[in-house]
Design a protein that fits this description.
globular
């Protein structure tokens, strides 16, 4: 095909991570680069001996200097390339997202071979985020591919946050294609109904990665007293109510989130007297509440935004789990999560174990938890496994 890209020469021995399957190269692995490629330009990574390894996005000023797109050194990265990747992602979702569900993640960055691109489907709308300079350069081709493959009514953009800023990109939000979405978009998830704020809600509007874990909560809470901490728009609460919970308490610091949780409870025709809404800081609430619960969900926001936050985040996770464990009845169940990239599975388990010891309780692991299959992860890219969780049982 004779496709010619500038060569990115690596230091001796630094090609191992790419060969083993990791899609990134850090700046310390780079020896030199032909020409003067800028942020987001396509380059061909080669070993110190000149062996072609991969083609991907280059960034001369980010600690992540290279993000692999393909291991084919002669691949033509053009509109057809992106259309093929997007079509492949669509076919995967058609296999793994079944039942009465019209909301899921349809593009999951490296997990779909598209570093820097996330796209979520909410009914007839797509919400997209471009977080790398390379993907930003191809935005028109990517948007056209998304339009052709998913045929949405409109595409709304929420390209914002630390990762984008590190690439030297300003935040960008607003309509990317078609008309503006309404203030609330109604979705169906496993036959349940939710209103989602895709313009200003958390993440892209809803925690789509928790779908399979919400199902599990619904299956385990018949007759239970349930406490949903960091409840946001009430996803876990609605599943608990529909699963036959005797009483559900939803706690979130945001009054707007609490109002949306109340609306979603009503939307599913659940009894008003079975749902208690509390607008409060979860740490304070758990320290003050005396009533015991059969099942508690701890799904906090990310406590560690970077590596410097790990120690303080670990302390926060330990405290929230210690307090939650103390509020469980004998034989109670705990669903506990971390979505911090910098807290891996091993560290999270150690934190929760320490919380159990401090609370004077012994726990049994029933299931390790993670996102649903609409959030695929490149097997060589552990950084993509951001959501981790544990289902624990307590009792003598």
């Amino acid at each position: 095909m004779n496709t010619r890209y500038p060569k990115l020469f690596l230091m001796p021995g630094r090609e191992r991570s790419l060969i083993k399957g990791h899609p990134w190269l850090f700046s310390g692995a780079v020896a030199s680069c032909e020409g003067l490629p800028g942020p987001g330009d396509l380059v061909q990574a080669v070993s110190a001996a000149g062996e072609p390894l991969a083609v991907g996005f280059y960034h001369p000023r980010n600690s992540i200097a290279f993000r692999s797109l393909t291991r084919d050194p002669e691949a033509r990265v053009d509109a057809g390339f992106f259309r093929h990747r997007i079509a492949r992602a669509r076919l995967l979702r058609e296999k793994v997202v079944t039942g009465q569900t019209d909301a899921c993640r349809v593009i999951n960055a490296e997990g779909d071979g598209l570093p820097g691109l996330v796209a979520d489907r909410y009914g007839q709308y797509l919400v997209v985020s471009f977080s790398t300079a390379g993907m930003e350069r191809f935005r028109s081709k990517v948007l056209e591919g998304l339009k052709k493959e998913f045929q949405p009514t409109a595409i709304y953009e929420r390209s914002e946050g630390r990762a984008r800023n590190m690439e030297g990109l300003a935040d960008q939000t607003g309509s990317a294609m078609g008309r503006m979405p309404p203030p609330l978009v109604e979705i169906r998830e496993n036959g349940l109904s939710f209103d989602v704020d895709i313009i200003s809600g958390q993440k892209t509007g809803f925690y789509l990665d928790q779908r399979v874990n919400r199902e599990l909560v619904g299956a385990l809470c018949r007759g239970a007293r349930v406490l949903n901490c960091f409840s946001y728009s009430g996803g876990f609460s609605v599943y608990a109510g529909c699963g036959g919970a005797a009483q559900v308490t939803s706690v979130d610091v945001s009054s707007a989130a609490t109002r949306l949780a109340a609306a979603n409870w009503r939307k599913n025709d659940l009894p008003a007297d079975a749902h208690r809404l509390v607008t409060a800081d979860v740490f304070d609430y758990l320290r003050q509440v005396d009533e015991p619960y059969d099942l508690i969900i701890l799904d906090p926001p990310a406590f560690a935004r970077n590596a410097r936050d790990v120690d303080s985040a670990a302390a926060g996770y330990k405290e929230i789990n210690r307090q939650g464990i103390k509020k469980l009845k004998e034989g109670g169940l705990l669903f506990t999560f971390s979505c911090s990239n910098f807290i891996d599975e091993t560290l999270f388990e150690k934190i929760v174990l320490a919380a159990c010891r401090d609370a004077g309780k012994e726990a049994r692991l029933l299931k390790a938890l993670g996102p649903g299959p609409d959030h695929p992860v490149d097997l060589g890219h552990p950084e993509g496994r951001y959501l981790k969780g544990l289902l624990l049982s307590f009792g003598d």
